[in-house]
């Protein structure tokens, strides 16, 4: 493979795909009719509702006709941006020929060679001559193709005008949005402050239960309809279970609920809702909704080179989300922790850890291979900007990376104001599979069990003031070589600068001491005292202490014990063991060893297991499988590595080497006999993905066209559209609030504060809409991730603001859900009159409830529940928590990392492009981008899953076997207590799977089915018991596969 | 109407359905119903296969380093390393003026498949299925054999019903590769039918109380489709009813591993492609690689040609014999080409060349025995009849009856198309 990065660079960031795609030039956007067609195609599949098309042609108060403007936007501007602005725009580093091509003024004024354009006279226009390579040749490296040149000719013929909105700032300017234009304000509705809407007047005042019902009913009454009847209690309890916890009620729970409901409806429903909201299953259901938004996954996904590195620590973020939802962490706090958790104060280690893990939100995105793109860091920033803005505000700002956003009021400058915040942030995602060409490896957050940092770095107070019998104690363990090192050792070969004293033993610098064992067995131990004088960040590796390796071999086969340095800051000052360039295993300890202190180390190899004890601690610093790679070599050296790289500058004492693996106890004795205090216990460090501020936060320069070439720096900040769109009378403090970013910080704290300001127009609207969507199957805004110009408009704008205002009072997700599910609107039946069905097929009036399919997780969990196999304890960790590798490599190795599990689906291993097979068929999101709304396709692969998947077969069999066995023939009563008739068993299975007893017809049909299957099996299956089991399992599978099981009313 | 809830209807049918007659009439006449894409990954050396560059003048220059001969009525030059394919010279439409944006494998490979170099976009097979809908009720419309990675068969933002179904991912053994959950042995087929009948009776009762719910109706239909697929797909994958002679013609099971040439069981892929084409799958991609012959060009080139030559010839022969070549478009090519070697200078390694390379097409609506465009005398860059990937995409869409600038999908606030925002051109010159 050879990487042609430079050439690629030029083409990559032209933002292919950002430009609106248009057919005939006369239509700047798709015509409403055409739009409706493509929408219809989708709506039949994803049941997306059609929404109003807004013609934005006249959105800008400019002199250009819509036609001319469209021509410019679609033909001329992309070409200018792509081919000319690198040199000829205000944002360019040095302006070529003093010519600016980013405004009418610039082009008419011209550059060194005079005016570049003569309106309506292409032949006389320099720009056309240059594009045709007549005299002047532009662009210099490659002539534009003829079509583009002809476009420029037409443009000049039409007058060569620029639309006003991008004057005079070009690609890096501020898109001015005409405040006075009423259509703009309609188009950018979500940027405008929320209104305090009084609840509307209604006729049927007995109907509503919650103020929100009044908004809904007003619309229904306005359309001269009446709402559907209330759902019956059996339907309602199932709806509440699935919506709130993603599980099914049992038949008994259903029957109890139905009975109580008849007596006291409101109290019965409230009691159930409160019970479900308080259960820990609630967080597993609603946490998963947030994970869709957070594009959560445990591997990187295809990075463009087909590589897919594991994210072994991502699952901690999953657990954080479940926990936060269960504790009902206020949404503003929830967002703040995910964006800036590392910058927030904490009162305990537990809180600190939780906040660090929360920032995993910013780190778990899919990244391109480093080899794909020189601007890799900006790709990470791009993912973060896009995720934060889309998740929280429902606004996509990605286009503004390369040019002012075409249809939302986001100028490029805003993008780079945000980019400065994330570019000042270090993203910690880990080793990226520890493979070449992937994303470059980074450190990770270290989660600590103690919060008081001052206790952690206490140097040991050890000295070499050993008792007189210390050397004898060492000898009692029969070392092969024991060198006290208060004078030159007899058994070792010394090279380099070494001096010996009784008080400080061997002082070494650029030296090594060598020896050999008698045999090359893969069990040995080594123990000694050392003092390192090199600062832990002074060089890439602070020091190598010991090598058991063939001396001088450049491939470094063998064991090498060293102290980490600046090369990897997460390892600085910590002991590590490395086994050479071939095997490449390197395991690091946790304790930071302060330079200038005496420390005792014992390294024990017992076959493939290596343990390293520091300062007499009972818990090893390192305890890991590490392949022995020294082969048949018996050599060793200390104070240096076998190839003389990174020698120790310091002191050594009481060196001993043993031709066997010492026991833990023996290791303790080697330290205990020294009379020195035991060192601090190694901290339990666990790792997490996340972010932290860079040492030197800085504003980001505009990247011209999103490429490598840079323009002016933009002060760190946020989106400016709100201020520009606000009217003078706006009393909101949000617009006026001043959020200047502290120069010493990235600005994520301020960003979070800005986003979660009570008056931020979008944040609360977007979240209540997400909540509404999960409860009704469609949002008030049908495009939950797009509140921009091209997104849908709210079906009930007043209702949206009413809910958003309520939500922003306390930011409680649970309270919002509670209010909605207790409303009359939520509790309506799915069935309604044909008149309403015909008039409102998409149910935009909310005069009935929407029938929905169980999603991938609820389907699997419900099946496990029915079969009795479900384990409702939280799943621990992840199948990949110890896997640092590419999950699909080498070629031909399909992913086999998924483990069988009966835990709820949220705990399954979510690998990008290798999703759990039990979930993959049912529109499980790919986690490459935000998925605020899942598809609900109907595909043959889903049916195949139901008919054939090992999961279904196993659950069906488990369900069949979980019930008392029927006797083989009617008169057999040999098994006491199991005298259950087949009809009774059918009823039991019905109640387990469908939470109700069968009708007589259903019972008869089931028995006929079981009988028929047994008959079909008789030619091939001899054993009667087995036939019976298979037939009953077939019946169970049928119930788990049918629509009644998979759809909720 | 049942089909509309599933994967049956494409964009064109939708336009007609929703009364957009004018738009539907804009559609071009379809010359092909399906596409077989012979994807040659790694950058096949065009100068030693189909773009003959003999030495001209006295000074040695870069060009072809293997011998070429003229073939067929058309007298088309084809490399001696492709003796079997050469017999079909009069069926080929060679495009020698291909060019692409980048000589970087991953990006160019992605652009070839999706029109985009880095961002994830739907693959052309998905676009075509989105545009045309399914031709066979019992099979997916897009099958990717020996797929290298997810991004080349993904439907991305298009509905997932248009995603490619991979058979054999990431180099797995093609003789074992299959469709997930296509079969199980927990019940014999007759019992499965019995079981499905029971499920469907439950479903119909459920539906009866919820009359008019198209989604529930769609599920009932889809259960039947899946049931039929269970027999159709494994039958198609099972080559035991092919004659020994056919297996030999396709070189099924031949696995040559030389240098960059991987053992891809290319013959099995081509034979499966024919069977899927016969069954009405819209878009079938087969894969062989790698043509990335950096180190030992001559040796690896020979192995790659030897692996692919006979199977491709057998495929063309069978398609023609069965009358399928008239409405099946076969497309051959990779993410870019390679610069030529200079005879006699002792060098045997080649790099990448995206400025000029070769694709060929055959069948469905393209000229036969025809060469379009040319590169300069050393094959370094396309100089005449230049065709960019987006032009190639526009042309393929045109051949199957779709207009590239009309086939759009709205996503993330804008309308996307396979050919991207830039102008693409249908290569009218090669249309029959």
Describe the model.
Chain B: It comes from Stieleria marina. Chain B: Pfam families: DUF1501. Chain B: This is Sulfatase. Chain A is of the alpha+beta class and 1049 residues long. Among the domains of chain A are: 5-33 and 58-176, no CATH class; 211-279 and 780-852, no CATH class; 474-682, Jelly Rolls (Sandwich), CATH 2.60.120.200; 950-1048. Chain A has 36 helices and 21 strands. In chain A, the strands form 5 sheets. In chain A, strands 3, 4, 5, 6, 7, 8, 9, 10, 11, 12, 13, 14 and 15 form a 13-stranded antiparallel beta sheet that branches. In chain A, a hairpin with a 7-residue loop joins strand 12 and strand 13 (622-625). In chain A, helix 3 (66-84) packs across helix 6 (146-157) and helix 9 (233-245) runs parallel beside helix 11. Chain A is globular, with a radius of gyration of 35 Å. The two termini of chain A are 55 Å apart. The model of chain A is unreliable at 1-62, 165-183 and 970-977 (pLDDT under 50). Chain B has 432 residues and is of the alpha/beta class. Chain B has a single domain, classed as Alkaline Phosphatase, subunit A (3-Layer(aba) Sandwich). Chain B has 11 helices and 15 strands. In chain B, helix 6 (189-208) runs antiparallel to helix 7 and helix 9 (266-279) runs parallel beside helix 10 (297-321). The longest helix of chain B is centred in the last third of the chain and has 25 residues, at 297-321. The model of chain B is unreliable at 1-8 and 16-26 (pLDDT under 50). Classes of the chains: A alpha+beta (1049), B alpha/beta (432). Chains A and B meet through helix 1, helix 2, helix 31, helix 34 and helix 35 of A and helix 1, helix 4, helix 6, helix 7 and strand 15 of B.
């Amino acid at each position: 493979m050879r990487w042609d990065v430079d050439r690629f660079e030029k083409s990559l960031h032209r933002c292919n795909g950002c430009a609106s795609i248009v057919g005939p030039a006369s239509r700047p956007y798709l015509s409403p009719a055409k739009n409706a067609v493509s929408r219809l195609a989708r709506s039949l599949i994803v049941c997306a509702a059609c929404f109003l098309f807004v013609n934005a042609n006249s959105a800008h108060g400019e002199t250009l006709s819509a036609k001319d403007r469209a021509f410019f936007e679609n033909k001329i501007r992309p070409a200018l941006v792509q081919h000319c602005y690198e040199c000829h725009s205000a944002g360019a580093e040095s302006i070529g020929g003093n010519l600016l091509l980013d405004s009418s003024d610039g082009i008419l004024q011209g550059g060194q060679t005079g005016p570049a354009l003569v309106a309506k006279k292409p032949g006389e226009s320099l720009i056309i001559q240059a594009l045709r390579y007549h005299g002047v040749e532009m662009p210099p490296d490659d002539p534009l193709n003829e079509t583009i040149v002809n476009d420029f000719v037409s443009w000049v013929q039409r007058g060569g005008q620029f639309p006003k909105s991008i004057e005079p700032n070009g690609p890096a300017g501020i898109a001015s949005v005409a405040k006075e234009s009423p259509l703009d304000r309609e188009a950018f509705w979500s940027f405008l402050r929320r209104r305090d809407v009084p609840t509307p007047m209604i006729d049927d005042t007995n109907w509503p239960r919650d103020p929100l019902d009044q908004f809904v009913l007003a619309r229904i009454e306005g359309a001269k309809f009446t709402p559907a009847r209330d759902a019956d209690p059996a339907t309602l309890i199932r709806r509440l279970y699935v919506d709130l916890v993603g599980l099914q009620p049992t038949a008994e729970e259903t029957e109890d609920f139905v009975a109580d409901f008849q007596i006291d409806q409101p109290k019965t429903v409230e009691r159930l809702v409160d019970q479900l909201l308080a259960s820990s299953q609630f967080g597993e259901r609603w946490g998963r909704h947030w994970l869709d938004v957070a594009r959560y996954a445990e591997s990187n996904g295809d990075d463009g080179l087909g590589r897919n590195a594991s994210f072994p620590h991502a699952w901690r973020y999953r657990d954080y989300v479940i926990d936060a939802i269960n504790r009902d962490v206020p949404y503003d706090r929830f967002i703040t922790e995910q964006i800036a958790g590392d910058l927030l104060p904490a009162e305990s280690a537990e809180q600190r850890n939780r906040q660090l893990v929360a920032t995993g939100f910013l780190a778990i995105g899919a990244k391109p291979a480093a080899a794909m793109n020189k601007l890799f860091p900006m790709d990470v920033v791009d993912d973060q900007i896009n995720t934060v803005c889309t998740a929280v505000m429902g606004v996509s700002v990605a286009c503004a990376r390369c040019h002012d956003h075409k249809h939302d009021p986001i100028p490029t400058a805003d993008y780079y104001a945000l980019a400065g915040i994330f570019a000042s942030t270090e993203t910690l995602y880990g080793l990226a599979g520890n493979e070449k060409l992937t994303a470059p490896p980074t450190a990770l957050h270290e989660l600590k069990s103690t919060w008081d940092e001052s206790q952690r770095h206490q140097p040991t107070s050890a000295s070499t003031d050993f008792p007189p019998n210390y050397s004898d104690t060492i000898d009692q363990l029969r070392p092969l070589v024991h060198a006290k090192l208060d004078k030159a050792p007899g058994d070792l070969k010394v090279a380099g600068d070494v001096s010996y004293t009784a008080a400080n033993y061997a002082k070494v610098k650029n030296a090594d001491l060598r020896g050999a064992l008698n045999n090359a067995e893969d069990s040995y131990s080594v123990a000694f005292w050392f003092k390192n004088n090199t600062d832990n960040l002074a060089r890439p590796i602070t020091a190598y202490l010991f090598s058991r390796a063939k001396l001088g071999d450049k491939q470094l086969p063998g064991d090498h014990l060293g102290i980490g340095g600046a090369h990897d800051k997460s390892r600085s000052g910590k002991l590590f063991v490395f086994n050479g360039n071939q095997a490449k295993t390197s395991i690091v300890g946790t304790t930071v060893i302060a330079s200038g202190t005496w420390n005792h180390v014992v390294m024990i190899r017992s076959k493939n297991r290596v343990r390293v004890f520091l300062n007499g601690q009972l818990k090893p610093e390192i305890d890991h499988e590490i392949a022995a790679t020294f082969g048949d070599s018996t050599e060793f050296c200390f104070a240096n590595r076998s190839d003389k790289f990174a020698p120790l500058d310091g002191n050594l004492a009481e060196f001993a080497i043993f031709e066997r693996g010492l026991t833990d106890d023996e290791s303790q004795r080697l330290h205990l006999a020294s009379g020195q205090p035991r060192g601090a216990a190694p901290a339990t460090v666990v790792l997490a993905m996340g972010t932290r501020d860079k040492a030197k936060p800085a504003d980001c320069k505009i990247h011209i066209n999103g490429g490598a070439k840079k323009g002016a720096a933009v002060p760190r900040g946020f989106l400016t559209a709100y201020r520009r769109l606000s009217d003078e009378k706006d009393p909101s403090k949000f617009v006026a609030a001043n959020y200047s970013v502290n120069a010493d910080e990235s600005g994520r704290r301020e960003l979070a504060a800005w986003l979660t300001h009570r008056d931020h127009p979008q944040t609360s609207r977007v979240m209540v809409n997400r909540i509404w969507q999960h409860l009704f199957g469609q949002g008030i805004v049908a495009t939950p991730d797009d509140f921009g110009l091209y997104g849908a408009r709210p079906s009930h704008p007043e209702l949206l603001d009413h809910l958003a205002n309520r939500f922003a009072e306390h930011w409680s997700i649970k309270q919002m859900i509670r209010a909605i599910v207790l409303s009359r609107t939520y509790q309506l039946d799915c069935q309604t009159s044909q008149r309403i069905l015909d008039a409102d097929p998409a149910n935009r009036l909310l005069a009935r409830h929407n029938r929905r399919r169980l999603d991938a997780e609820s389907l699997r969990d419900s099946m496990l529940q029915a079969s009795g196999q479900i384990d409702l304890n939280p799943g621990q960790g992840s199948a990949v928590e110890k896997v640092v590798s590419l999950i699909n490599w080498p070629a031909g190795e399909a992913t086999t990392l998924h483990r069988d599990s009966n835990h709820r689906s949220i705990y399954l291993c979510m690998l990008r492009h290798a999703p759990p097979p039990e979930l993959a068929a049912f529109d499980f999101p790919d986690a490459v981008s935000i998925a605020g709304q899942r598809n609900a396709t109907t595909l043959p692969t889903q049916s195949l899953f139901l008919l054939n998947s090992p999961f279904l077969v196993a659950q069906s069999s488990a369900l069949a076997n979980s019930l008392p066995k029927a006797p083989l023939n009617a008169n057999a009563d040999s098994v006491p207590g199991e005298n259950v008739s087949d009809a009774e068993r059918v009823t039991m299975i019905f109640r387990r799977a469908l939470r109700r007893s069968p009708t007589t017809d259903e019972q008869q049909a089931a028995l006929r089915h079981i009988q028929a299957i047994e008959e079909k099996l008789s030619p091939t299956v001899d054993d009667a018991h087995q036939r019976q089991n298979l037939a009953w399992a077939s019946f169970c599978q049928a119930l788990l596969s049918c629509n009644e099981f998979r759809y909720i009313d | 109407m049942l089909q509309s809830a599933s994967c049956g209807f494409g964009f064109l049918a939708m336009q007609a359905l929703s009364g957009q007659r004018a738009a539907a009439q804009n559609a071009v006449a379809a010359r092909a119903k399906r596409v077989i894409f012979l994807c040659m990954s790694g950058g096949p050396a065009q100068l030693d296969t189909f773009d003959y560059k003999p030495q001209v003048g006295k000074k040695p220059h870069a060009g072809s380093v293997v011998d070429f001969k003229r073939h067929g009525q058309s007298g088309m030059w084809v490399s001696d390393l492709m003796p079997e394919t050469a017999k079909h010279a009069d069926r080929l439409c060679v495009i020698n003026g291909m060019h692409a944006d980048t000589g970087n494998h991953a990006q160019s490979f992605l652009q070839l498949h999706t029109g985009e170099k880095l961002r994830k976009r739907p693959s052309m097979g998905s676009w075509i299925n989105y545009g045309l809908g399914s031709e066979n009720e019992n099979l997916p419309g897009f099958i990717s054999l020996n797929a290298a990675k997810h991004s080349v068969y993904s439907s991305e933002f298009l509905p997932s019903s248009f995603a490619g179904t991979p058979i054999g991912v990431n180099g797995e053994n093609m003789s074992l590769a299959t469709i997930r959950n296509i079969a199980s042995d927990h019940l014999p087929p007759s019992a499965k039918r019995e079981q499905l009948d029971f499920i469907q009776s439950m479903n119909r009762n459920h539906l009866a109380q919820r009359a008019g719910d198209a989604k529930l109706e769609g599920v009932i239909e889809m259960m039947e489709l899946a049931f039929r697929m269970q027999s159709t797909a494994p039958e198609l994958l099972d080559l035991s009813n092919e004659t020994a002679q056919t297996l030999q013609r396709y070189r099924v099971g031949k696995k040559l591993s030389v240098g960059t040439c991987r053992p891809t069981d290319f013959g099995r892929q081509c034979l499966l492609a024919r069977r899927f084409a016969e069954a009405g799958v819209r878009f079938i991609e087969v894969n062989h690689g790698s043509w990335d012959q950096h180190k030992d060009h001559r040796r690896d080139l020979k192995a790659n040609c030897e692996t692919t030559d006979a199977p491709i010839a057998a495929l063309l022969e069978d398609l023609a014999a069965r009358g399928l070549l008239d409405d099946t478009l076969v497309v051959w090519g990779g993410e870019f080409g390679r610069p030529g070697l200079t005879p006699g200078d002792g060098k045997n390694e080649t790099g990448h060349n995206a400025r000029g390379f070769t694709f060929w097409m055959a069948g469905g609506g393209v000229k036969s025995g025809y060469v379009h465009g040319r590169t300069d005398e050393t094959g370094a860059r396309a100089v005449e009849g230049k065709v960019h990937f987006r032009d190639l995409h526009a042309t393929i869409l045109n051949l199957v009856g779709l207009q590239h600038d009309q086939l759009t999908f709205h996503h993330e606030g804008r309308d996307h198309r396979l050919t991207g925002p830039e102008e693409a051109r249908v290569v009218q010159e090669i249309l029959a």
